[in-house]
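User: For a benchmark we're assembling, each entry needs the component sequences followed by a predicted structure for the full assembly. Here are entry 17's components. Please fill in the structure.
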Amino acid sequence: MSNPDEHPRLQRLLGAWALHSCAPDEMAEVDAHLVGCGECAAEAEQLRSAVGMLHPYADLDPSLRAEVIGTCLSIRPPQVAVPDYAQPYDAETARLDALLADLNDDEWTAPVQLEWFEGDDAASRGTSVTGVLGHLLAVDGMVSSTLGLPDPVPHAEEVTTDPTERTEALWKQMGPEQEKGARPADGRRTGTMHGAWRDHTYELIRTCSFSGNGVADINVPYGDGVVLPLRLALLDRAFETWIHATDIADAVDYPYPPPVPEHLRTLISVAVEMLPTILAARRQAGLASPPLPVVQPGAPARSLRLHIEGESGGDWYLPLDGPGGPAGPDNCVSHVVLDEVEFCRLAAGHLAPREVAVGQRGEETAVVELLYAMASMSRL
Amino acid sequence: MGTTTDAPGSAAQWERRAQVRLNRGEAAALGEIYDRHARLVHAMAARLTGDDKAAREVVATVFTRLWQHPEAFDPARYRLRTWLATETYERATAHTSGAARSAPAPGHSPAGPVAASGTRTGEPAATAGLLEVTEADSALTSASFRVRSVLRLVHTENRSYRDAAVELGISEEEVLQRLRQGLQLIAEATAAAREGRS
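Assistant: Structure for entry 17:
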């Protein structure tokens, strides 16, 4: 009965056996094996006792966090609140943290493809889940070091504000096996990329909370010669945190919905409002056609109507011939309609301009140039 | 930066600091505590009430109490986790005895193995059952998504391991391994709780 050759196979069945989820003949085989195998009998008893501790429960719904904190703060208003501009970052880092707490050890090394646009071409780069966190940490560090917090990138004084260089510097110091080992009850470990990233996000949120609106407009050197007010830089970090969380979620096949509508609306508005400036920069670089009044002196400046569909969308008239230019129904030459999530994926470089399902009317060049301007907002 | 939370000493230190932060009304501290402990509070509340809507309410009540009265938690005497588990137990049992009892799922007593005696508000239950439940739910909620999804299909939805493999699109071996791993995690956690008590 207790055939030693059968031991490994029957041992592997013990969990299913304890839960009565084997076929009847397998249940009987295990029962018979337990009579003669002390090792399996001990484990079987142990697993049986664990079954009694199981209960049918749904996983914690990520949306409960905002609900519970909202209830708390309505009952006792905070003396030190998380400022509005940091709310999306707070929410998105918490969502990513919850996803990370759910990963298996071997999923930390799952290959993840990062995608963005460089010039007018799609670019991509392979890394791991750990590598994605390193990238987020390296770029978040540009915001936190502006606030006087320690820079997470090693030898940051020698590293420029280039996000790619910073990411590579951080990747270089990180070992591949960092995320293995026992997981503590709160779902993360010290000395890991997960722990380092999370502690850093908390420190950033906390510092913004204490500094409040006093720091909202300080200048953050954000790479590629771009300088953003801290408030916008942190909103962009919330956006990137979401986009890279979807990269991780895709890699490990995990459901990951978009941010709550209120936050998504803020993130979309910020991106839309940057578009005229980006379009102007692309003209300077010869990547878009020159302003119409320059080509045809005396011609009126044009605008484009951008309609983003969805709960977090909206309607904008964007000046086409210079960021400060007039924009409204009177000088509108094109009309573009885009879905909210498609817009975000385009702005994140995760969707090519030619793949976008866009509804458009009017002057086509203006539309194409705008779509490329959107895609060019992405970077590693 | 780099706050350590794994070693018991530094964890206690973190909790003392967290309490000071709560006292001075720092909303970010509430978020950090929620992120660390909400899974456990929610899982215990769901076990004890047998109902997800009730569990959500219990989670809100427990964190509201901590936010409103941070002084009710004494970091010199308890770990925050223990305090939250006790609060959860009390709120959840009050909820089930107060509300019209709905029948729990077959085979799952809503109160589980918790003995109801010996708890006062703010005092961690001296009962063995609470400690075991806390450890079991800690183990369950910190198990990976993959392990939990297999346990849920097989245990809650009564699938055979073969059907679970088909449904999840993974190999039977993988299902077997995850079931065994999940049960081992719970068995080890509850055994440690029992030993700690004796």
